């Protein structure tokens, strides 16, 4: 296996983030192997379009649907949808070894489960990154990606018994992003990112949607962000912070940053303007699909199928166990469940 000074990186996944990380790391001269279900749809190099408009071509290493492609990697980055993490990690486990780092990007509650399993902690250096390091959109699958921005700061949790300083220094260098250390993996469950951010906007947009309703355009998710969405986001965040204060190892201000502090805002008005103005969010569309009569919500989007069922709902379950009221968060779950029961293309008929 190569030395850490010239690490070989393995990426599991084929979505936006996997493309962006491959492009970002490949343009920096790193050898990148990719584990994907669709290896034949990838080229030998990946075009990465950066925020300043420049395009760089990242050569790629082995691209395969077999986990053996990861065995010589120093660092393995798992960037798959939340519902696929367990399956992917189980599949690659026999090909990992103790000298490797395994990073779930972004960190999820599965990291907490794996950290309690000796078969994992004895196999690999396990860690999770709090938020996705890159904001991105795939342009052509397997061939080009737009990297819209990177995080100015991120956080990491490394399972006890591993060299946290070593791994965090490596990841800081790879993504040009300072990392602070989380006290525990609790923030991977109790996060005020997508499980709060996305339903705040989606519910404010589509709360009154009925079958037969059509919109005359596809809304911009962030640039047309509203004060109603901000109010929901702030209320949900306050409920989450109350819950966090009851969980050991969760330090508010360190392990979770209040929404208003994170976005340097004092109220819903300022938060709305801030979210609307973030350059990396520009051009991101609301989850919608076009029909002959106009636009309708796309209920197959992960905003509905993943962020709430796998993100918001577990938070509400923990709050229920601790007898902590979270009415706004619960309203996200109830509305999302109702809307999926009626309109999801995956519902049982």
TrEMBL record:
Residues 184-339 form the Opine dehydrogenase domain. Keywords: Oxidoreductase. GO terms for molecular function: NAD binding; oxidoreductase activity, acting on the CH-OH group of donors, NAD or NADP as acceptor. Pfam families: NAD_Gly3P_dh_N, Octopine_DH. Gene3D superfamilies: N-(1-d-carboxylethyl)-l-norvaline Dehydrogenase, domain 2, NAD(P)-binding Rossmann-like Domain. GO terms for biological process: glycerol-3-phosphate catabolic process. Residues 9-104 form the Glycerol-3-phosphate dehydrogenase NAD-dependent N-terminal domain. The keyword Nucleotide-binding does not apply. InterPro entries: 6-PGluconate_DH-like_C_sf, 6PGD_dom2, G3P_DH_NAD-dep_N, NAD(P)-bd_dom_sf, Opine/Lysopine_DH, Opine_DH. SUPFAM superfamilies: 6-phosphogluconate dehydrogenase C-terminal domain-like (SSF48179), NAD(P)-binding Rossmann-fold domains (SSF51735). PANTHER family: BLR6086 PROTEIN, OPINE DEHYDROGENASE DOMAIN-CONTAINING PROTEIN. This is NAD/NADP octopine/nopaline dehydrogenase. It comes from Akkermansia muciniphila (strain ATCC BAA-835 / DSM 22959 / JCM 33894 / BCRC 81048 / CCUG 64013 / CIP 107961 / Muc). The lineage of its organism: Bacteria, Pseudomonadati, Verrucomicrobiota, Verrucomicrobiia, Verrucomicrobiales.
């Amino acid at each position: 296996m190569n030395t850490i000074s010239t690490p070989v990186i393995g990426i599991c996944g084929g979505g936006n983030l996997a493309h962006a990380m491959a492009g970002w790391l490949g343009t920096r001269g790193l050898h990148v192997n990719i584990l994907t279900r669709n290896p034949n749809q990838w080229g030998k190099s990946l075009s990465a379009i950066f925020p300043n408009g420049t395009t760089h071509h990242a050569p790629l290493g082995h691209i395969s649907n077999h986990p053996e492609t990861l065995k010589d990697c120093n660092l393995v980055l798992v960037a798959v949808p939340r519902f696929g993490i367990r399956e992917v990690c189980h599949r690659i486990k026999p090909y990992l070894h103790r000298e490797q780092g395994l990073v779930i990007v972004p960190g999820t509650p599965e990291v907490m489960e794996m950290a309690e399993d000796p078969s994992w902690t004895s196999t690999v250096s396990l860690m999770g990154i709090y938020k996705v390091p890159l904001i991105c959109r795939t342009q052509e699958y397997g061939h080009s990606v737009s990297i819209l921005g990177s995080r100015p700061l991120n956080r990491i949790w490394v399972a006890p018994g591993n060299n946290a300083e070593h791994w965090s220094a490596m990841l800081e260098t790879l993504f040009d992003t300072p990392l602070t250390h989380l006290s525990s993996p609790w923030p991977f469950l109790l996060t005020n990112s997508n499980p709060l951010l996305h339903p705040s906007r989606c519910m404010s947009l589509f709360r009154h949607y009925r079958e037969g309703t059509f919109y005359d355009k596809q809304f911009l998710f962030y640039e047309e962000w509203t004060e109603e969405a901000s109010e929901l986001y702030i209320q949900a965040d306050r409920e989450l912070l109350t819950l966090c204060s009851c969980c050991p190892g969760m330090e508010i201000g360190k392990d979770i940053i209040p929404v208003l502090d994170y976005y340097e805002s004092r109220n819903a008005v300022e938060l709305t303007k801030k979210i609307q103005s973030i350059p990396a969010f520009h051009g991101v569309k609301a989850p919608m699909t076009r029909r002959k009569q106009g636009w309708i919500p796309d209920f197959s989007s992960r905003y509905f199928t993943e962020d709430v069922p796998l993100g918001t709902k577990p938070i509400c379950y923990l709050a229920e166990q601790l007898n902590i009221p979270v009415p706004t968060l619960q309203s996200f779950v109830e509305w999302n469940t109702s809307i999926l029961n009626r309109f999801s293309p995956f519902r049982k008929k």
